[in-house]
Amino acid sequence: MSRRPIIIFLTLLVLVSFIVIYLPPDLILQLQPNAFQKVNDTTNSGSSQPDELDEAPMAEKMTDESARKILGRSSWTLLHVMATKFPANPTKENTADLITFVNLLSTLYPCGDCAAHFKKWIKANPIDKGAFTSKKGVTDWFCNAHNDVNRRLGKPIYDCALVTERWKW
To answer: How far apart are CA 128 and CA 126, in angstroms?
Structure first.
């Protein structure tokens, strides 16, 4: 029996727990049902085998900017720390598990427009091109993804050579 579903479930559980722990209670009370707007659905372009990256994110657009910033900071912390803990010489199963996690994250991420941006970034920077065959490849891939978001938001670009030192917990 494969451990992959259990690992993916536990990883998603850790992500959600991390976000909930660091989300201030007063912010939770401020969230209103109308704080979200539905993200437009995208449809598959008629291919016989659906591409999971073409599926619309499950979450709605997050309009509460404060909650969005907290979610973003918490998520990047988790992803960078997870990348620094990735094995230096991963097995094929390690690589497959991380690819599955990233693809699921791009669909299940609680900020719909963030998830849509992440899906576009994954398509432009495919995981299956060898990025996840080493710890350095993983840390660089996540750092480059984070820097893409930083560029879009007008934030400073982080030196990817410093990721391992910054996020080694």
So the answer is: 5
Q: How far apart are CA 27 and CA 104, in angstroms?
A: 26
Per-residue pLDDT tens digits for 112-156: 899 999 999 999 998 877 889 999 999 999 999 999 999 999 999
Q: How far apart are CA 126 and CA 51, in angstroms?
A: 13
**CATH number of the domain located at residue range(s) 4-30+56-166 in this protein:** 1.20.120.310
| Residue with the two structure tokens 């559980």 | 13
Q: What is the pLDDT of residue 62?
A: 82
Indicate the pLDDT class of residue 8, thresholds 50, 70 and 90: low
Q: Which long-range contacts (CB under 8 A, 24 or more apart) does 148-157 make?
A: 148/121, 149/72, 149/117, 152/117
Q: φ, ψ for residue 36 (rounded to 5)?
A: -125, 150
**Cα–Cα dist 102/109, whole Å:** 10
The domain segmentation of the chain, as residue ranges, is: 4-30+56-166
CA 121/CA 133 separation, integer angstroms: 19
